[in-house]
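Whiteboard transcription, Tuesday session. T.W. wrote the structure tokens on the left side:
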């Protein structure tokens, strides 16, 4: 019931919804001498949510043929929406990490994770529009990879804010009264919660029209 308890802890907290856009510019992957990647894909993910770039060819370097790059002549934009929560008496939002994964795509279309790196979205959230240049170092997941970095710009736009509603509590109470067999795999439910969080503020706007609370 960890996922249910987590949502109960959010009752009374403020929620702010942001749009983030990552504009990929350059991906560097250094490999071992016995292997070269086919095509590379950058996946931006959190639990069940995945935002994939297009597959791009890896170009070996002249000085070091095992250290190659993917360069975007025109940046490829990947967009996500993120809801961040904050206690009414706190100055900062709660942590929420999204992970970048570099994947190799074989000629048959099969993908395998090569390296990973995470960022805390609260560090880039701002009430005013911002754009930040980011150079991210990755942790190899495969013995075939020596190192990897991704350069991109990350823009943030504040969309709206809201708060927990009575409707949320009613749905939680209903969920907690269900039998374990009816609930199914709570790990899957935890993943589904992420999209519920992103839609929560939209529901709150409808409730605001009834309660008289405006943004």
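and on the right, the sequence the group agreed on:
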């Amino acid at each position: 019931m960890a996922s249910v308890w987590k949502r109960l802890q959010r009752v009374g907290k403020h929620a702010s919804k942001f749009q983030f856009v990552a504009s990929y510019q350059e991906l560097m992957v250094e490999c071992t001498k016995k292997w070269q990647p086919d095509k590379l894909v950058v996946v931006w993910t959190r639990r069940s949510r995945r935002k994939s770039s297009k597959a791009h060819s890896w170009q070996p370097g002249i000085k070091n043929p095992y250290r190659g790059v993917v360069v975007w002549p025109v940046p490829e934009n990947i967009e996500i929406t993120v809801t961040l929560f904050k206690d009414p008496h706190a100055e900062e939002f709660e942590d929420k990490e999204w992970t970048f994964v570099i994947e190799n795509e074989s000629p048959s279309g099969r993908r395998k994770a090569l390296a990973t790196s995470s960022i805390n979205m609260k560090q880039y959230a701002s009430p005013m529009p911002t754009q930040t240049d980011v150079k991210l170092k990755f942790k190899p997941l495969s013995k075939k990879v020596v190192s990897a970095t991704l350069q991109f710009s990350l823009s943030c736009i504040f969309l709206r804010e809201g708060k927990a509603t009575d409707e949320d509590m009613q749905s939680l109470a209903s969920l907690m009264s269900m039998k374990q067999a009816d609930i199914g795999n709570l790990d899957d439910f935890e993943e589904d919660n992420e999209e519920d969080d992103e839609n929560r503020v939209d529901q709150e706007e409808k409730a605001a029209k009834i309660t008289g609370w405006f943004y």
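Someone added at the bottom: The helical segments are 2-8, 166-176, 180-183, 186-211.
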